[in-house]
Amino acid sequence: MAKIALKEGWAITVAGRTSCACSIVVEGLAAGFLLDLEDGAPRELSKAFDLIVWTAGAYQEGPIIGLSRGDIRSICRNHLEGPVSFLVPILQKNRELGRPVFLIVVASSSSFRVRTNEGLYGTNKAAKAQLARTLGQELPSLIPGSRVLLANPGGMATPFWDGRGRDTSGFMDSNAVAACIWDEMQSQNVPFKEIHVVRQSDKSPKVEYGARLPE
């Protein structure tokens, strides 16, 4: 989505542990902000933004009984505690300036669908999705003009899966999914919208709307 935004003339800041190695940062097309979400007190970026895309997370390797304390801390901090700690000062700055913000929260179909060996991962995705729904009501009141888009995509083929022994041949192309989410952001004229990006038989993404019951 950052690459799509660049093509449309947005000024981009990429935050994360490897942000400074990101191709668009290395090429000088975007700013990099070094951020370790597993840090108990992550760095703050007290700056207002027009658009925030929250995609951070960490995968669960194996069943929950095999997770170490470090694994548990890593999953919970990367998905929820770290991003929220980083997000709040930005929202405070936007409110101080009276500057509306558009927040895109990328959760997962695992936020409502039970999958083996994804218990803690799915729990954090569900919490992230519920926070997005709540912010969809709160932010427009706290910062008039603000909007929230919650996107729950299915499996995507990304470099994350390299070397993990997962067959991604049936997964969606991540660039196509990003384009779907971006298009939904551009067309959104209500304070909150929830979408699901699902895989069709030809692996192309399709957008569906509204909350899902747990499966």
Q: What amount of the residues lies in strands?
A: 15-25%
The helix-strand sequence is HEHEEHEHEEEHEE
Number of domains: 2
CATH architecture of the largest domain: 3-Layer(aba) Sandwich
How large, in whole angstroms, is the Cα Rg? 17 Å
Which descriptors would you attach to this protein?
two-stranded parallel ribbon, Rossmann fold, five-stranded mixed sheet, alpha/beta, 5 helices, 215 residues
Structure in words:
The relative contact order is 0.12. Strand 3, helix 3 (69-97) and strand 4 (102-106) form a beta-alpha-beta unit. The mean pLDDT is 92. It is built from five helices and nine strands, in the order αβαββαβαβββαββ. It has a five-stranded mixed β-sheet, with helices on both faces. It folds into two domains: 1-34, no CATH class; 39-209, NAD(P)-binding Rossmann-like Domain (Rossmann fold), CATH 3.40.50. It is of the alpha/beta class. The chain is globular. Helix 3 (69-97) packs parallel to helix 4. Helix content is 36%, strand content 19%.
Protein topology:
Layout: H1 2-7, E1 13-16, H2 23-26, E2 31-34, E3 51-54, H3 69-97, E4 102-106, H4 119-142, E5 147-153, E6 156-157, E7 172-173, H5 174-187, E8 192-199, E9 205-209
Parallel strand pairs: 1-2, 3-4, 4-5, 5-8, 6-7
Antiparallel strand pairs: 8-9
Helix pairs in contact: 3-4
